[in-house]
Amino acid sequence: MIIQNVDTREEKIMPAHGGKGTIRMKFFHQEYQRFRDAPDLGIPSPTYSTANWNFFAYSELPVGSTIGLHKHIDNDEIYYILEGSADMSVDEDTRTIKKGDVILTLHGSQHSIQNVTADLKFIATEILIDSQ
């Protein structure tokens, strides 16, 4: 069993897909997929070498920041909103998101977040899609 706690994870601050401002993220178990180069992670367990996910992350998008429009090519992404509100677009559909919402962006779709009116705190996870 591998347990990681949000209070002990390193916060990574980065631009979000060409959006304005920055997003703050704390990644969990990402050493097994896309984010293997993080310096605070141990040696990956071979058990996870074929995991069908990219990451699970606690994320914060402050007022004034945005996530730029980007397309999901090889994965589905799920957001679970913990706090805050903003407008989110998935393909041609734009809606206000808030605490308790779960948003799915499917493989082949695109999404963005704008108009953050209260700091948006959410869980984001990407699940790989078998393209065969």
Task: Give the number of DSSP strands.
Answer: 8
Radius of gyration: 15 Å
N- to C-terminal separation? 31 Å
SSE class: mainly beta
The share of residues in helices is under 10%
In round numbers, the mean pLDDT is 85
SSE arrangement, N to C:
EEEEEEEE
Shape: globular
Low-confidence parts lasting 5 or more residues at pLDDT below 50?
32-41
- Main beta-sheet annotation: 8 strands, antiparallel
Strand content: over 45%
What is this structure, in a nutshell?
The chain is an all-beta fold and 132 residues long.
Write up what this structure looks like:
- Strands 1, 2, 3, 4, 5, 6, 7 and 8 form an 8-stranded antiparallel beta sheet that branches.
- The chain has strands at residues 12-14, 23-28, 53-61, 67-71, 75-90, 93-98, 102-105, 110-128.
- It is globular, with a radius of gyration of 15 Å.
- 0% of the residues lie in helices and 52% in strands.
- With 132 residues, it is mainly β.
- The termini are far apart.
- Strand 1 (12-14) and strand 2 form a beta hairpin.
- Mean pLDDT is 85; it is low at 32-41.
